């Protein structure tokens, strides 16, 4: 997507089936056959997911997640890595499973939730109570832009948002730098450098 970006580009991430993303493959980690092997596989997934979050935060275009099913654990983090989220109200939840599974959070997950979810109570309930939040509540708390009754409506709303933003034909590099400036703690943990870009019109 970055290589193909031009002024007027936007990214919409969609999925099919029950899940937007169910997060890391814990079954694969457990199939290692030992506690040490499982921990190594889990660390591996944490490390290879990190550049995906970094890529979304530095992508030179607006990004929209069309959450048409469950977004759990790393899948929820994936959705939060986008600029805008649209969600179904009739099916699917936002859920951080770590406290229920007995897993701690990677540091960049903690920073992502801290800087993307401004309401402390919502953040606390996701991370410390294993809250499963449906679309209406997520919209009410400002975590998603809007919730809709069907998969098609979510996709259509996501595309409308992307098209509206793309029409502005912003400088993608400037857009990415401004986005990164909103999340300084997260960008530091992801190793994302920032730079000043001066407009030629100034």
TrEMBL record:
Coiled-coil annotated residue ranges, if any: none
Functional pathway: Lipid metabolism; fatty acid beta-oxidation
Biological processes annotated in GO: fatty acid beta-oxidation
Pfam families in UniProt: ECH_1
EC class name: isomerase
SUPFAM superfamilies, alphabetized: ClpP/crotonase (SSF52096)
EC number, as in UniProt: 5.3.3.8
Keyword Lipid metabolism in record: yes
GO cellular component: a single term: peroxisome
Keyword line: Fatty acid metabolism, Lipid metabolism
GO MF annotations in UniProt: delta(3)-delta(2)-enoyl-CoA isomerase activity
Catalytic function, reaction form: a (3Z)-enoyl-CoA = a 4-saturated (2E)-enoyl-CoA; a (3E)-enoyl-CoA = a 4-saturated (2E)-enoyl-CoA
Entry similarity comment: Belongs to the enoyl-CoA hydratase/isomerase family.
Name of the protein in question: Delta(3)-Delta(2)-enoyl-CoA isomerase
Native organism: Corchorus capsularis
């Amino acid at each position: 997507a970055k290589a193909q970006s031009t002024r007027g580009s936007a990214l919409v991430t969609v999925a099919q089936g029950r899940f937007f993303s169910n997060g890391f493959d814990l079954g694969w980690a457990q199939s290692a056959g030992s506690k040490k092997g499982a921990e190594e596989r889990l660390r591996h997934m944490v490390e290879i997911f990190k550049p995906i979050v970094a890529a979304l935060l530095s992508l030179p275009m607006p990004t929209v997640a069309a959450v048409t099913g469950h977004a759990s654990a790393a899948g929820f983090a994936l959705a939060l890595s986008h600029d805008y989220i649209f969600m179904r109200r009739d099916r699917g939840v936002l859920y951080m499973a770590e406290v229920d599974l007995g897993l701690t959070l990677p540091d960049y997950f903690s920073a992502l939730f801290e800087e993307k979810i401004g309401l402390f109570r919502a953040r606390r309930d996701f991370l410390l109570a294993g809250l499963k939040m449906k679309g209406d509540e997520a919209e009410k708390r400002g975590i998603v832009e809007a919730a809709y009754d069907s998969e098609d409506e979510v996709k259509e709303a996501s595309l409308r948002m992307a098209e509206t933003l793309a029409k502005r034909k912003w400088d993608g590099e400037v857009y990415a730098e401004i986005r990164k400036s909103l999340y300084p703690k997260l960008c530091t943990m992801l190793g994302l450098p920032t730079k000043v870009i001066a407009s030629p019109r100034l």
